[in-house]
Amino acid sequence: MKAAVVSVLILLVIFVVWPDTYGGDEDDDNDTKSWFPLDNQLSLSYYDRICPDFEKIVATKVREWTKKDSSLGPALLRLLFHDCGVTGCDASVLLDHEGSERRSPASKTLRGFELIDDIKSEIEKACPGLVSCADILTAASRDATFQLGGPYWPNAYGRRDSTDSYARDVEKVPSGRRDITALLETFQSYGLNVLDLVVLSGAHTIGKAYCGTIQSRLYNFNATYGTDPSIDSKYADFLRRKCRVASETVYLDAATPVKFDNQYYINLQKNMRVLTTDQELVKDPRTAPLVKAFAEQPPHMFRQQFAVSMTKLVNVGVITGEDRVGVIRKVCSKSNSRPY
What we know:
CATH superfamily of the domain at 199-306: Peroxidase, domain 2
Helix content: 40-55%
Strand content: under 5%
Structural class: mainly alpha
CATH architecture of the domain at 199-306: Orthogonal Bundle
Radius of gyration: 20 Å
CATH topology of the domain at 199-306: Peroxidase, domain 2
CATH class of the domain at 199-306: Mainly Alpha
Number of strands: 2
Strand order of the largest sheet: 1-2
Distance between the termini: 62 Å
Order of helices and strands: HHHHHHHEHHEHHHH
């Protein structure tokens, strides 16, 4: 009983009040425009006049593609994380040329590019030269999350696309092997905090990891040729059988792998942790209380806070019309001016 009270108090102290939009209809009328934090010249009504069907086109395309391949939902969210985590939410990850982020070895497992290209092609027919690829990726990842049972949040738009993309910058993206201190330093450089770190890590409630990223924990932990003893023994047996080949994949949430809920945090409490960073969240005193709180409270509390943290993330390092370096690409994978 005491533990439950403590977890409630923790969430009450850190929780940002957010309208009850999770699980709702994206077309519902609400008063979010009155309280939404706008930065970097972005606007909730940016496309209302110049491309009023923008969000409808994006949602329709995401629905079409994810109906055929449900794994594209988590893939889009991961693609956004990799974009925002390098030089900001500027669609630099979409540029496809020698030496670009997309060609980096660390990006080889990213997916969803073809879906973004399809959305861009459709939008160019309706609103040529007006909608950036950065805004498309921002909207598509939100819609994919919503379709998986996650929250729906309002996006501010008006981003421009980067003209540059360098593979060397990809090392800035938090990896599954970093410790909490390194992760916090990275998040703080984005203007995010420890709560955002724990909440956005909750995206691991959906999606998969390649076995190659965890084989060292299963077969040669700390050069002992054994398994990380912090993993639940039965779960470790399952992972060893599943991950004999590096190219195989394993669900990040073994209990409810295709449902956007707080099961990820419950799994962490049960030592069912796939990535090293998952394990560190439970061990570190700065993050462990938050993990415990989200595990013990109803799923909607996590979903609400996820929406808050996502609106902060998609504002990281954006380029707007006031920045001379930004453009609106005609094709998301290609520069408007550079032949590759």
